[in-house]
Amino acid sequence: MIKHDQFGPERIIEIYDAKIGMRGFLVIDNTVLGPGKGGFRMTPMVTKEEIFRLARAMTYKNALADVHFGGAKGGIIWSGGDQKKKKLFIESFARAIRPFLVTHYISAPDINTGEREMAWFVGAAKNRKAATGKPKRLGGLPHELGSTGFGVAHSARVAMEVHGIDLSKARVAIEGFGNVGSFTHKYLESWGAKIIAVADSRGMALLERGLRYEKAAAAKKNKGSVSEYAGAKKLPRDKIFELEVDVLIPASITDVINETNKDLVKARIVVEGANIPMQEPIEAHLARRGVTVVPDFVANAGGVISSYAEYHGLSAKKAFALIEEKITKSTRAVLQSCQVEKCYPRRTAMELAEKKLLLGAKKRKNTFA
């Protein structure tokens, strides 16, 4: 159920194209600080409520990152099909929400959408500013740079530093090996951390001496799963949540840590690489057990900071410098405040974001100009 409060949502749009059977949703949660920013996903499970939760996370994420964007999110119910059908769905979705694009909503990649899909989207919208994460030929920052994973890695690095964990001796587990999880692995490994376990939808690879990024990527590409990593122990994917590690990074889909496995988590720190990998009551439960959870809108803001850089025509080098600066600052501010106030990080991060939103609302004469 969607509850309206002082922050939104401002608009909830349901879309149905009877000709091709496309159903989708757009939630524009809050535009106090700028046009709503957030990608659109394509999964069979997309619901209006899920899109709202993600849009609200974007509201907080953009406010905390101090970029001039509001919060929004889109989704298409997608049960699969060929490239032609996917293109038809995306183009229909873009045309349906065209009145809101750029002024109230700017899109980006999410689950099952990437550079190719953003090219289709902006083509149908007839406006390159309608989305970020586009191919380089359309003015986008290259997808292969891994901006979100870069930010998650920095957030994990700061979390370890605040908790007195030596990064070079840290044991890390990463659940998910898509764009976020793979690049988080790459950057943490390059700084000296030991990634002892990586999982994807087909299984988990466990190796106490550490899994190498290049070999994990090769296993994924050539054999379809990181669990096929040569020399590693192959286990069921869900077992990754039970490992005794310093840092666990869920970087796949929504609600992977839930009522069924919350008491099995043994990590000292959980850094949320995915959007909403657990609900707030689960985070609070882990906090009571002594587990520090770095919220998604703190840890994975690298993507939207990169989007901000792309939107304003900045180079990849400047984008990455901005990601490091902003995520390091916000992660440290949240965790250090929690050490003093004895609270859990999401509440602290939300309070910091809400102060910015309330200040922006005071300066706003009307919600709908």
Quick structural overview:
With 369 residues, the chain is of the alpha/beta class. It contains eleven helices and 13 strands. It has helices at residues 48-65, 83-96, 115-125, 147-162, 179-190, 213-223, 280-288, 296-299, 302-311, 316-341, 345-362, and strands spanning 11-17, 22-30, 36-37, 40-43, 70-77, 105-106, 171-175, 194-200, 203-206, 233-235, 247-250, 269-271, 292-294.
List keywords for this structure.
369 residues, alpha/beta, Rossmann fold, 2 domains, 11 helices, globular
Walk me through what this model shows:
This protein has 369 residues and is α/β, with parallel strands linked by helices. It folds into two domains: 11-140, Rossmann fold (3-Layer(aba) Sandwich); 147-344, 3-Layer(aba) Sandwich (Rossmann fold). 40% of the residues lie in helices and 17% in strands. It has helices spanning 48-65, 83-96, 115-125, 147-162, 179-190, 213-223, 280-288, 296-299, 302-311, 316-341, 345-362; strands at residues 11-17, 22-30, 36-37, 40-43, 70-77, 105-106, 171-175, 194-200, 203-206, 233-235, 247-250, 269-271, 292-294. It has a seven-stranded mixed β-sheet. Strands 1, 2, 3, 4, 5 and 6 form a six-stranded mixed β-sheet that branches. Strand 12, helix 7 (280-288) and strand 13 (292-294) form a beta-alpha-beta unit. Helix 2 crosses helix 3 and helix 4 (147-162) packs across helix 5 (179-190). The radius of gyration is 20 Å and the shape is globular. The model has no long low-confidence stretch (mean pLDDT 95).
